[in-house]
Amino acid sequence: MRKIFFSFLGICCILLIAACAKNDTPQTEITGPENDKETSLQLSILKGNNQIALPGALLYDTLMVKLTDKENKPVSGKTIGFKASNANVTLLTTDAISDNQGIVRSQIALGNVTAGEYKDIVTVFLKSNEKIKAEFSFKVETETEVDVWLNKNPRIAETISWPESNSSDLNYNAWTATQKTALNHFYQQAKATWEKEVFALSPPVNQNTGASTTIKLDRRDVWPIYLSNIAVSLHSEMNNLLNWSILDYDQGELKMLLDGRTFFIPDAAASNLYQLNGASTARRIIPESALFLRSFLQKEKIIQSDKISTIGSLLDWCHQHFTHFGGSYNYDNILDHWQYSGGVPMSRLINGTTRISDNRFNHYTAGCHGTVDFIKLVLRSSNIPVESFRSYDSHRQAYFSTEGLYMSHGDDPYNLHTWVTPVVSLRETLIDQPTYDRWFNGSSKESVARGTVEFAVKHLSNILVNLRASEPAGTPPAQSKVLKEMSSFFTLEELLEMDLWTRLDARISSLGGRDRIPEALIGRYK
To answer: What PROSITE patterns does UniProt report for this protein, alphabetically (predicted)?
Structure first.
């Protein structure tokens, strides 16, 4: 058993993400009797209790306990023991010292067990006083709630598919008991962390050691990321947490959410490595745990009552936070902006980074390619499929298939023309299929980002107001700075038909005249 444990420990998806949540399982507290010398100390189980496995599976998990005093303050520097009471259990650590947060961890492998309940299978105790202890239990069940639901929804089960190699995909029905147990573990984590804050772990290490933007990730890293995404999708669907259902999606939309090849592609040269690059996968953004991504959506109140409002809310978040990175997309510049080798980890885009070369903090996005990748990966954690594709002139665009709407350019959220006063949601920059077909006919490069200038004309963007206010009163439209700004997209006649200058002059008058435009309106464009 020990040999099996160490052979598979690296593949263990459960160890990599489950520890990232605050209070991810209810605490169990057992203390020693009051007449003991260390009775003021107590051990509480933070994680790993009552886990579920399928018969024949190898269950891997992190056991986490916390040592505190009678005032619930963490106690560091104490030796904690882990002891198994079952021959089928292997522990990676039997003794550990509590850290400065009072936390101690070990890893467990449980295998070769039949269905049943295994109570008090691991005891954790204070070495200096073994009466202060906590005990872990496990269950082995013939089927999980994920199994039951997928059996009733075979189209979903068939779409959940992991690329074992370039020529072999394994759908859920063909997964081993160990693989299904791992997915169920993440499902339980999704339940435990719903509406709780989940922190990102360190992003997976790029195994491509050359100075290249090609990203290669270890199977032991990508498998748990994939499982977390499937688990979050299933948790939302099975518990009716969203006002939309994946059961209404066509097969292409389901694949965008559930097919492993839309996440990672097996590396042709090394069986243990996976790449990101491909026609339907993220080019620049490193996927991370969907538990973290969903927590981000909840914390920022991005998930709304319908899909289009949720999409608009995420675009608005990007509008308020993102800044286009500087320079070209090369190895050194990536390190400068995101301190990562070859790409952009999701968490560093969400949390922001400090650019090394000038010590400036921002939420730097990797251009239109990176922004569309980000939108695709984040919305996937709320069961909204997004197709990422190149425009005819190599820009990146997004298609929200369930809504029939497009982004005219991945850089739209932080385009200067999207700043209007008062604020208007950027869902209005999205365009429908007939508009997309008319604008993007393969011959008009100027159509890229046209959604933002249409938005600017309709809502009188701050920059248009500022341009008009900066020229002498009565400047004819034909000599106006506004025409020069918009001439790539509109003719003078088209802008006159939209009554643009009349509306701009009225807006300026309502703000007190050319010399009294509020600083908040124009300061961004000085």
So the answer is: PROKAR_LIPOPROTEIN
